[in-house]
Structures are given as C-alpha cells and as structure tokens.
Fold this sequence. Notes:
CATH architecture of the domain at 4-101: Beta Barrel
Shape: elongated
Largest sheet: 21 strands, mixed
CATH topology of the domain at 4-101: Elongation Factor Tu (Ef-tu), domain 3
CATH class of the domain at 4-101: Mainly Beta
Amino acid sequence: MGRPLKIAKAQAVLTVTATTAAGSIVTVSQNLTTVGVAAGMKFSVASTVGGLTANVTYYISSVIDVNNFVAATTQRSVQPQVLATLTDTTSQSVSATVNVVDAYFNNPLGGTGFPATNANTYGVVGGNTAIIGKQVLCNVAFGVQGVGTLFASTSSNIVVGLGTDFANLATGSHLYAQWGGNVQVAQLLGTTTGTKGNLKVVVANTTVTGNIIGTSGNAQTLTASTPVVFDSTFGGLTAGTTYFVKAIANAAAFTVAATPGGAEVQLTANASVTGNAIQNRVILGAVSANNASGVNGYGDGFAQALPEAGYIVRQKGKTKYLVTGTVTGITNAVYTANVANTALTPNTMAIIATNAASGTQYVSSVNDYQSRTFPATVADGSLSIGTVYVIYQSGNTNWTAYGAASNITGVTFAATSAGGSGTGLAVLANVNPDVIGTFNTAYVANAANGQPNPIVTINGV
C-alpha cells in the first residue's frame, strides 16, 4: 500500500512582522480574533526569524491582543511553561502556520510526525500554498473559451483573428482551434509569444486598375486569406468593415475581397490616403500544428489554456481534482494528464511534488484509499441537532456556540444548533476526511512494462 495522500489544512497562515525579546512576543499582520487563533494552538514558521527556528513546533502561550501573542516552546499543560527565547526584530514578512493538519506525507525513516527532519516527509497543499512544509503543487492548464474566431496555416506561425483581442492573450498560452464549431475536439495550433495585438500597415493610395491598395508600409507583413479592417474610409472601402486580404503583389500593393475567397473589391481612385490596414494577430513560437479557417471561411472558434502553477483544493474522483491556478486565479475541475500529454490540453494537470530525494521519481496514479475519500461537507447553518460532526474547516464559524469544545479543525461534537452563517464546514463523524488516496509505484513511463496512464511526478530539490 502506498503512502496516504492528504490535503493539508491549517487554522490560519499568519505573517510574522516583528518579534520582541521582552515577553517573547510575536507580532503578526492578521487579526488573530478574526482567523480564530487562540492560546494553546501550535505554530511553525516557514523560515527562521527573531529566535524562532524554521520547521520547529512552538505553542501560543497567550494572545495579548488582535496582532500579538506570546510564544512558548512547551505546551500549556507543562508547568511552568517555557517561553521561547526571542530577539528584537522589525519589518519582517515570514509565514507562520497555526495548527497545521496533514501537511506531510509521512513514512519516516527517522523521527515522528511533522516537522520531524527526514527525507520522506512532504505534504499536499489544499487551498493555501503558504502552509508550512514541503508541498505538492501542480501544473495546470484551464481551458478558456476565446471570443471571436481565428485563422491559422501549417505554413505560417501567424494566427489572425476576427472579432478577437489577442493583445490580452497571456504569453505562453496554448491555442486550440475548434474545427467546425466542435468545442469538444480542440486542435492544438501552438504556444503564443509576446508578439501580439494589432498589426498596422500604412495605406498610401488606391487605383482602379487592378483594384490595388498601395501602401507606404510593408504590405507583405499582412497575411493573405485572413480578415483585415481599415481605420478610415477611402477608395470605396468603409472604415470598420471586415474585408479579406485577397492577394499581396509586393511590399507596396495588395487587394481585398468582401468575402473569403471572393472577387476583388472594386475600388475608386484615391491618390492620397490617410489610414491603416489592421489585422489582429498573435505570433506562435513555431509554425501552426494545424490549419484553421472555418467551414465557411470565417474562421474557427478557439480555446486558450495557459499552463501555470496551481494547487489542489480537493479530489473529485480517481483522476479528477478541483484546482486553483496561481496566475489566472481560476478554480475549476481538471483531470490528471496522460504521461505523453506534454502540452497539457485544456482542463488537464500534472501533479508535481517536492521532497528531499535527489532525483525525479514517478508514480502511476492517485487511487482512492477508501470509499469516502472526500466526504460531503455540511455548511454552517445546515447542521442537524443531535448529529455528531467533525470540524472540517474552521472558517470564521464559532463552533463552540453549536456544541463543540473548541473551534479547532478535527474536533468532534454533537450539534446543539443548526448553526449560523459562518464560512466553516463540518463532516459527519463516521468518515475520515484526512485520508485521501495512495501513490502507486510505476515503471519508467512509455518503456517496457511502462505506465502510459496518468502519472504523478515527484521532483527532487
């Protein structure tokens, strides 16, 4: 059996801003009352500060006010309690995790519990990447439906849009054409570069013979058979109307059609034009992997997906997770990617963990450990009187008002009230909300006896 995969939780993640030697006082930026921090709770700092050593368990001896508490090295049950020896510091910014639960994956070679020092202790982050400990994050690509349509060719790295706003497309995004309007079958075009937005070519004149639009800019930077608009009306062309580049004779001349593949627009002569030909486009890092022009020539719909770091909020199935992106801020359900799926198609992810190993390790999948790996939660205000619950997420709920002995995650209580309108969550007491799943050992991917199925990657640090 593999190690149990646990989602890390904590009462609060504080920011230590100062420490005071006299009285062993720790100052934080958060309101301790609001986040539910109380005397007796454990805490650990992410990096050494003011006499507090990183990854060592300390205790809150007493809360002085909303921003200050007294730190101790022993529990309150130990009398006399030993206060921490601190130094005077100011202008600090160090994370401190209070009452961490399951911030580790522990099959220890030595030591017990967290944060004991051993090579096999690491953890899974659920909902807050500042929680102390070695953390399991993920690379994720959320699929976002694009606005407008696009045009692409396997002979070019230029993607031109119709009704699009490529200027606001994140650099490094993967673009997918939805052939024939099929949202479910997305065809990868490529990865976007920082060259994006409107391309403008200065127009100089128009002539009737050949219906040529003359330019003082370089007409050869335009892309044939794709949309173009003009920002002024001239030579029989109307500003803001969508035309299609028909032919590009040279750097100083091109023609347009009113429809995809249509005849050249009949122009009137204009010897002096003040205006620009404009194409909305984005440059890919390589030529497009697929063509895109739409079944009627007006372009294909598209989706975009930005590969980004994310953290797992909770598991929703064998390979389905609720994940939050740290760049886009999107929270959505995604699936673990196949080992060969290096591009991370929309709404897939690859789990990345950090531990003290020297090299990269692979596991084949994350499997359910028991039937109720992520039990249904009950919100504050929906409790049933007399039913026994366990506090799953403290939030800002005053659980003691509903029958709990304290407001700490993991406390079991029989509800004396339906509750109120707080943000806390409970689960039924007959489930184990901490046990999530297991890592299974895998062979080298895509080799003899390999695993071509979803993987979890453990990166060495």
